[in-house]
Amino acid sequence: MRTGSWLRFTTNGSRERRRTLRLCRLLLFVILGATICAQTPQYTGPHALGPFRIDKEVSMTSLFARLGSPSSTKGETFCYRSARGLYLALTRMSDVYDDKVAGAVTLSRSRDCVAHAVHVTPDDLTAWKTEKGIGLGSTEEQVQEAYDRPTTVVSLDGTNYSSIDYGDFTGLDQPPKNPPDLGTKALIYRAGPNDLSHAEFGIKDGRVVWISLSYRE
Fold it and tell me: Are 23 and 101 part of one and the same domain?
């Protein structure tokens, strides 16, 4: 074999090896990326409950306009009761982000605002549903048909559960006559560590008795 031909053969072989090595590295990165994505929980829960959304900012002012403005808009959490006896707790986004933006909403069949003033709202809270039509009274099966299997299922026992209790029963001289009806379990939908999306559905006798949706720490 001539020297020139041998050099071309060697050069072409080196190029092919480098090309193969680059392809192998690229394939490794793709596999590692897919593995990380598969291990990171993906949020499959709702993005809206009534006019409140967690996929875009909703101002506290717009929700006050719909629910009714309380006598003082200072504070973190505001509680409402509808003419039909449903309750809604509205919470600001943490001031670390923007306290003019709503960060969480909880809709419930029973009063969950302990040691908070409750304002009567003219709004029909029965119309507050998720973007897939899940609301109070929906079945557990309908929730999972709409949003797939929850990230976690928590058994509930008692009347205290931090996700929907805005206050502490133990600090009250006279606990409420009708404590919140938490149900028997909560279906929890959450995402990975860099996504604050969070939703919970309280279940009793197979039906939704409260819904909590938030995007805040």
Answer: no
Answer yes or no: do 21 and 104 share one domain: no
Q: Is this structure's pTM higher than 0.85?
A: no
**Which residues are CB-contacts of 84 (< 8 A; sequence separation ≥ 6)?**
124, 125, 126
Query: Mind listing the pLDDT tens digit for each residue in 84-135?
Result: 999 999 999 876 567 799 999 999 998 877 777 899 999 999 999 999 999 9
What DSSP string runs through 138-165?
-BHHHHHHHH-S-SEEEE--SS--TTT-
Beta-carbon contacts of residue 162 (< 8 Å; ≥ 6 apart): none
Question: Could you tell me if 91 and 172 lie in one domain?
Answer: yes
Q: What is the Cα–Cα distance from 137 to 202, expressed in whole angstroms? A: 10
Task: Tell me the helix, strand and coil percentages in the chain, rounded to 5.
Answer: 25, 25, 45
**Is residue 209 located within the same domain as residue 167?**
yes
**Inter-residue contact 210 to 108 (CB < 8 Å):** yes
